[in-house]
Amino acid sequence: MIANLAGLLFDGVAYGSLLFLVAVGLSITMGLMNVVNLAHGAFAMAGGYLAVTAMNRLGWPFWSTLPLAFLGSALLGMVAERLVYRRLYRASHLDQVLFTIGLVFASIAAATWGFGAGQQLVTLPPALSGQVRIVGVDLGVYRLFLVAVVAIATILLQAMVTRTRFGAQIRAAVDNRAAAAGLGIDVDLIFSLCFGLGTGLAGLGGALGVEVLGLDPNFPLKYMVYFLLVVVVGGAGSITGPLAAALILGICDVAGKYFVPELGAFVIYALMIVLLVLFPKGLGARRA
Predict the structure, then answer these.
(1) Tens digit of each residue's pLDDT (9 = 90 or more) over 39-73
(2) pLDDT, greater one: 227 or 33
(3) Which residues contact 282 (CB under 8 A, 6 or more apart)?
(4) In sequence order, which ranges of 164-282 are alpha helices (DSSP H)?
(5) Rounded Cα gap, residues 272 and 168, in angstroms
(6) How far apart are CA 6 and CA 118, in angstroms?
(7) What radius of gyration, in Å, describes the C-alpha atoms of the chain?
(8) CB neighbours of 156 closer than 8 A, spacing ≥ 6?
(9) Of 28, 11, 36, nearest to 241 (Cα)?
(10) How far apart are CA 196 and CA 190, in angstroms?
(11) Which residues pair with 134 in a beta bridge?
(12) pLDDT band at residue 288, thresholds of 50, 70 and 90?
């Protein structure tokens, strides 16, 4: 019983780690640019399809598809920010929601036309297959790999935001865009780089999540609410807050589907309501 609970907890952590990797970019862009980007999952889907295409059609090894997914999604995000999202900065939140939900349906149609409506399959390398026994508990090697990747990404992101000049410029632009521009910071460039970083992380999460989350054209719509929950409950513009929210969501979602499958996603929504009542500004909100 204890081993089963430990395995269930670990699966929830791995699932939550993937949700965080995709959603942290949305947290950064919403907190910095004040744009409600419901199409963020489309960039994760793009990274997944880049990885699948490189593996299944071009014969690339799994390891080399991960940088491709990150860089390809980051480039796509920067182009989209320059051509599309920059026009939304001064629009109302309703206009942003309507426009980005339109992008979601456009991405679904494009993915269906290009790759078909079915699930995409990948073959993991032998090093990431199977299970390993740790303290009497059988854990999936691939899920251990996911947790390790997300832990490293979180440490690097936190270090970038708090310990680098670029991070200081990001924080300045978040706190006061006009003052940051007056000090000589190229805010437009900061926005483009942040948007590219966020979409790149989403694409990496999409590539890593093909085996766990699945990949089909409905991916951006299927997981839209999950990504938004991570950001809203964790706090936009934060890193540690969405991480905590994603882990809580992942563990509770896996446990709810295991113990009370008849309730479906009700457990998650009930928990999120409670957390929002207790922490209306998010788990990672800063004090004024």
Answers:
(1) 999 999 999 999 999 999 998 999 999 999 999 99
(2) 227
(3) 232, 233, 234, 235, 236, 238, 241, 245
(4) 165-175, 177-182, 187-208, 219-222, 224-234, 240-259, 266-278
(5) 31
(6) 33
(7) 19
(8) none
(9) 28
(10) 10
(11) 137
(12) very low
pLDDT in tens, 132-180: 877 777 788 999 999 999 999 889 988 888 888 888 888 787 777 788 8
In a domain, 119, yes or no: no
Asked if 220 and 209 touch (Cβ cutoff 8 Å), the reply is no
Q: Specify if 11 maps to a domain.
A: yes
The range of the structural domain enclosing residue 80 comes to: 2-113+144-278
Q: Per the structure block, which two tokens stand in for 238?
A: 């934060």
Vertex 190: Cα angle to 198 and 176 (nearest 5): 110
Confidence class of residue 1 from pLDDT cuts 50, 70 and 90? low
Write the CATH number for 96. 1.10.3470
User: Length of the chain, please?
Assistant: 288
- Which one is predicted more confidently, 21 or 177? 21
Residue with tokens 């938004």: 228
CA distance 57 to 38: 30
Q: Which residue, chain included where needed, has tokens 């598809």?
A: 65
pTM for the full model? 0.90
User: What distance in Å separates the CA atoms of residue 245 and residue 247, rounded to the nearest whole number?
Assistant: 6
d(CA 11, CA 5): 10
Number of structural domains the chain divides into: 1
Cα–Cα distance for residue pair 77/63, rounded to 1 Å: 22
Rounded CA gap, 67 and 243, in Å?
A: 22
Tokens of 76: 């796509």
Whether residue 288 lies inside any domain: the answer is: no
> Is the pLDDT score of 2 beyond 70?
no
Closest Cα partner for 149 from 232, 46, 244, 70? Answer: 70
Kindly indicate the confidence band of residue 287, based on its pLDDT and cuts at 50, 70 and 90.
very low
Specify if 109 maps to a domain: yes
Place of tokens 């920010």: 81
